[in-house]
Amino acid sequence: MSQSPSSTPRATIGLTGLAVMGRNLARNIAGHGFPIAVHNRTTAKTTSLVEEHGEDAKAAGGELIACETLEDLVAAIATPRTIIVMVKAGEGTDAVIDQLAPLLDEGDVVVDAGNAHMADTIRREQALSERGLHFVGMGVSGGEEGALKGPSIMVGGSEHAYENLGPIVEAIAAQVDGTPCATHVGPDGAGHFVKMVHNGIEYADMQLIAESYDLLRTVGGLEPAAIAEVFRGWNDGELESFLIEMTADVLSHVDAATDRPFVDVVADAAEQKGTGRWTVQIALDLGVPVTGIAEATFARSLSGHTGQRAKAREVFGSDLAPVEAPASFVEDVAAALFASKVVAYAQGFDQVRAGSEEHGWDIDPGSLATIWRGGCIIRAQFLDRIKEAYEADADLASLLVAPYFADAVRDGLDAWRRIVVLAAQAGVPTPAFSSSLAYFDGLRRDRLPAALIQALRDDFGAHTYQRVDREGTFHTDWAGDRAEHEA
């Protein structure tokens, strides 16, 4: 298309969709010296952004260029154009892309920076490539503050797209030890797939933290302010992470209206936007057991079934069984939390590897550990250890067998078992702790009862089986003479 005759394009990049995330991302880009054209469906948001932050952008060497229409947005950007879409996932994103595509030239890049399902990203990439356009599914983690001050950014798409986008995202991303928390993950849906798994790990991490809080309070008898101090202490050690730090902050907060601990006035029904559910669904398709993530997702679902919970309380009551917490209780919870977190991350990285193999993405797991060290919600001290583990062995069978993590799990195993047993005896639900321990025990077991399951499948459905003592696939004539035949 021809450029607007009224002005010379001066923006390096464009962005449409100025809700809080888009607004903050635009400010971040401009604040790092990049002129950015900005657009929103309602012009008032565009005007207010430029009026409030335009001078700061200029002082940083960048610029916020207000555009009333998508045509104006496209005309304001130097070619080849790169335009970030920050609107509601699903139909909203499709609608904007449908409006943008006819305005663009071959070689231009459209970037979806929302939480899109990877299947939608793959579909959009294929559709735009037929028009000579490049589509990027870009995962952005860190919330509103991260978008403004430095997120973790996972870019999926073509090498051409990253040539244009890379210098900008690497500049605006969080920086750890001089390394940007941004990388080109792989083609088409790889970026959004990895962001989805990141969010699945986040679900598990938050559930494990919640179970730790519940145990410390209901079994350990500690009040929220005291538990906040426990978490602050943990944040000075190997459990150091953004979520542990935030937990201490939330638990120490007192509600101004009631003078009660803030956590006691929040309804105990956790919501979700879908990425945890997608993680579990796609893991099932890939045949990857992400049990910790699955239990965390189902725990949120259970919390929302308030009517069922009320009826169950009427029938069974809600009293806990009396148990005596050992002197080492706080330390035991910490050990169980650390071991279970290792399982959650191990399962997440297993899913990344399986997805990469399924789609031919060639994702480097070590690069993910690198970019997740800063900016994102699951940033934690031990991501450095994950990075080192994959640098030492790129084909690591499981994160659990890497020397550092194997030693940590061995050291905490007795405490982990004590916590799960104590929780069961007390009647405190710990689905993430318990399923993580069961996964660990299943992973290391010499013989699993799956042998019986496979024999049963052959008995009722002639599904065949394999033997441990010779090669081949076999079926037993269970309804007849029980003779075994090679299938």
Structure in a nutshell:
By secondary structure, this protein is of the alpha/beta class. 54% of the residues lie in helices and 10% in strands.
Describe the structure.
By secondary structure, this protein is α/β, with parallel strands linked by helices. Helices cover 54% and strands 10% of the residues. The chain has helices at 20-31, 43-59, 70-75, 91-100, 118-129, 143-149, 159-172, 190-218, 224-234, 242-251, 275-286, 291-304, 306-316, 329-359, 365-371, 383-392, 403-426, 431-444, 450-461, and strands at residues 13-16, 35-39, 63-67, 82-85, 109-112, 134-141, 152-156, 175-176, 179-180, 182-186, 474-476, 484-486. The chain has an 8-stranded mixed beta sheet with strand order 3-2-1-4-5-6-7-10, with helices on both faces. Strand 4 (82-85), helix 4 and strand 5 form a beta-alpha-beta unit. The longest helix is centred in the C-terminal third of the chain and has 31 residues, at 329-359.
Question: Which characteristics define this entry?
Answer:
single chain; alpha/beta; two-stranded antiparallel sheet; 12 strands; disordered N terminus
Helix-strand layout with pairing:
Blueprint: E1 13-16, H1 20-31, E2 35-39, H2 43-59, E3 63-67, H3 70-75, E4 82-85, H4 91-100, E5 109-112, H5 118-129, E6 134-141, H6 143-149, E7 152-156, H7 159-172, E8 175-176, E9 179-180, E10 182-186, H8 190-218, H9 224-234, H10 242-251, H11 275-286, H12 291-304, H13 306-316, H14 329-359, H15 365-371, H16 383-392, H17 403-426, H18 431-444, H19 450-461, E11 474-476, E12 484-486
Parallel strand pairs: 1-2, 1-4, 2-3, 4-5, 5-6, 7-10
Antiparallel strand pairs: 6-7, 8-9, 11-12
Helix pairs in contact: 1-2, 1-6, 8-11, 8-12, 8-14, 9-10, 11-12, 12-18, 14-17, 14-18, 15-16
